[in-house]
Amino acid sequence: MSILEDETSDSGVDSRSRLESYVFSCELSSEVPFYTFQADEDEDVEHFLELRTICLGDGAKEENNLVEVTAMNHQGKKTSVPVANLNISCLPMVSLGEFELMAPVTLRLKSGSGPVTVSGLHLVATENEESEISDDDDDDDDVSEEEMPSVKPAKKKQKGLLSILRKLKSAPDQEIRILLLGLDNGGKTTLLKQLASEDISHITPTQGFNIKSVQSQGFKLNVWDIGGQRKIRPYWRNYFENTDMLIYVIDSADRKRFEETGQELAELLDEEKLSGVPVLIFANKQDLLTAAPASEIAEGLNLHTIRDRIWQIQSCSALTGEGVQDGMNWVCKNITAKKK
């Protein structure tokens, strides 16, 4: 599959960028625990790995299989993050959406014996450079060929896919890792899709996790939405590493679960790997008449006793979008303060 993008430079010269995609798949196991995706260096070609799904294969045992990805961050340094913790009985597969990484990328089965199949797309972005030669008019006969200075063909102004990517790399947004947690049916996935300006008319429960990248106020917010079902919650801790911001979503209309959601939040705040991490609590589903106000929820969860980090509770409706941007403005403001 390939996509052609036509661009026109300021000089009127037509340029052409091509994005080709190829099916990618590799298998990790105790015998072959890692795979490195790499490509030859070429100034006019960029290679990306777009991860889509990670699943257990035939013969998988009743054990946890932790898959880790190592790739370059925006500072050009290698960083490793867990992307899946699979179990044949409760979480045999996760969908990553469109998780794009620039080569080289190493996939590693950090624990478990597999087999684990990682699939997605190998994206190849190429740009064809053309030359523009300005010719003099035929009626300029008073200038002889010997008097004409030698002129090198002018390179067209790059405006294709690769030039855009290079521009982004030269002045990248600061990447922020946000963990989006909460009980099942709290509206986390709807909130995530609202942030990414995606269709929210059809939402299914998250059985693994979703990842979305959202651009906001000079930040690239990488938001990890982890499923909230009781059987998945023990796996939350596998995603705590390197978290810059915790967003906790509460169903304001489900008063019967306030005690349960409060206990889960308290346990998160006690986690060593989340120590000092700012937390935004979205009091979601405020569009419902039965929703408790944010002030009531804050009092019921004893949020005023939090002393080891900055926090905020924000009324919102992921369905209508009301209050969501206010919450994300708080996130960006306090990430800026934290990074200084």
On the 0 to 100 scale, the average pLDDT is 78
Main sheet strand line-up? 13-14-12-15-16-17
- Report the β-strand fraction as a percent range: 35-45%
Number of helices: 5
Main location: cytoplasm
Biased composition (Acidic residues): 127-148
GO molecular function, one term: GTPase activity
Organism: Anabarilius grahami
Report what the structure shows.
By secondary structure, this protein is of the alpha+beta class. It folds into two domains: 2-128, Sandwich (Jelly Rolls), CATH 2.60.120; 173-339, 3-Layer(aba) Sandwich (Rossmann fold), CATH 3.40.50. Helix content is 16%, strand content 39%. Strand 1 (2-8) and strand 2 (14-28) form a beta hairpin. The protein is globular. GTP binds at residues 182-189, 228, 284-287. It comes from Anabarilius grahami. This is ADP-ribosylation factor-like protein 3.
Key features of this structure:
5-stranded antiparallel beta sheet, Rossmann fold, 6-stranded mixed beta sheet, 340 residues, 2 domains, Jelly Rolls, alpha+beta, 17 strands
Can you lay out the helices and strands and say which pair or pack?
Elements (H helix, E strand, L loop, with lengths): L1 E7 L5 E15 L5 E4 L7 E12 L8 E8 L5 E9 L6 E10 L2 E7 L4 E13 L2 E2 L21 E2 L5 H10 L3 E9 L5 H8 L13 E8 L2 E8 L18 E7 L6 H12 L9 E6 L9 H7 L10 E5 L8 H16 L1
Parallel strand pairs: 12-14, 12-15, 15-16, 16-17
Antiparallel strand pairs: 1-2, 2-9, 3-8, 4-7, 4-9, 5-6, 5-8, 10-11, 13-14
